Structure formats: structure tokens, C-alpha cells
Amino acid sequence: MAKKKNKKDAVQHSEDHGKTTADFYKLKTDAVDRLVNASAETAPKVSEKEIREFTGKRKFNIPYWAKALFIKFWFAGAVCFFFFFGLGPYLQMADLLFVLGAALGAVKNLLENNLLRFTEKTEGESKRFMLVEYKQFWGLFLDVFYGFVILAAVMYIYNLITLGLAATIGSEKAAGFGVEPLLFGLIVTAVDMLFISIKNLIKKIINDAKKTVSEQAGRKQ
Description:
Structural class: mainly alpha
Number of helices: 9
Radius of gyration: 30 Å
């Protein structure tokens, strides 16, 4: 038994003796390449049960879309409270609406979008909830313009609600219907998501068309 073991050690020693120092430190390049090029698309699928088992993650988890909608609703309501109610006694209606529209866009660019990026689980997930995705300074001007578009749509919806109430309960009672943060936040969020959904749909149609064209070009080659 001892002779057999000694013979095996001798063979192993002779094999090791024939190797250079570089052979001992040779890396598995294919494994390194897979690790370096790993991404969310190429990573193996892992179930939520396995994630909770190894990370201690809670079973109840708020989905990102719910967080995004709440963030949008909260900031819209906050803009109404601080700007519409806060500056209402000091500004004429035209000036107040101008400030309100600009505030909607500025808050969306500087606060809301950054918080959406901060809370996203995977990179780029927050883009599904933004109309203006640019981080550059000129994105602020686009968002301010977008704020005026949202405000115009919200004013139109408020007028429709007022006309509907006037036809239902009378104009005197409908006159008491006014702007308040909760309903304002809900309407702004609904209008915002409508525009974003249209953008996402157009973006998907364009990407699908590009993919189809590239596939057809590949087949011809």
C-alpha cells in the first residue's frame, strides 16, 4: 500500500516538475470572460425563493411600478400644496399657473426622476416611468415644457369635471369644487402616465421595426 502511494507521489512530482511557473498561475480565461461580460440578460434565472433563502430578503416586496406611481403622485401633490396654495394669495391666476407649470417640470427633472433612478432594482428600469430620460442640463428645459403640457391637460380635465358636476348637481354646488393636492396629484399622475405610455408604445414600434429590418438584411446576406 505504501509502495503504491509512493509511486503515485513520484508520478505527481514528475508531472509538476515538468510544469513552468506560468502553468501554475494560468487562469481559466473563459471563466474570467464570462464573469467580466456578465449582465442582467446573460445571468442565469434565479427564483425569488432562492434569493430569499441566501439573502434573507423579505417575502413581501413592493413592486417597482407601485413605488414609481407613488413617487409621481406624492411630488405632484406636493407641488400643488406648496406652489398653488402657498403662492395663491400673492399671485394673479395667470402668473400662478405659469409658476405651477414650471414647478411641475422642474420638480420632475430635479427630484422625481432622480428618486426613480435611485429606487430602481435594475439599471434603466426607471426609464419606463419617464418621458424625458436625459440627465443633461437641457433635459431640465424639456421637462419644464412638459410640465406646461401636463398642466394644460389637467386644467382641461378639471373643466370637464366641473361641467359634469354642474349638469348633475347644479352650477352653484359645482362652483364649490376646487383644486386640492390629492385629486390634483392623481390627475397629474394619470396624465403623465398616459403620455409616457404613448412614448413607450412608439419606442417599442420603432425598435421592433429596426429589429425586423436587421433580421431581413441578415437573411439576404
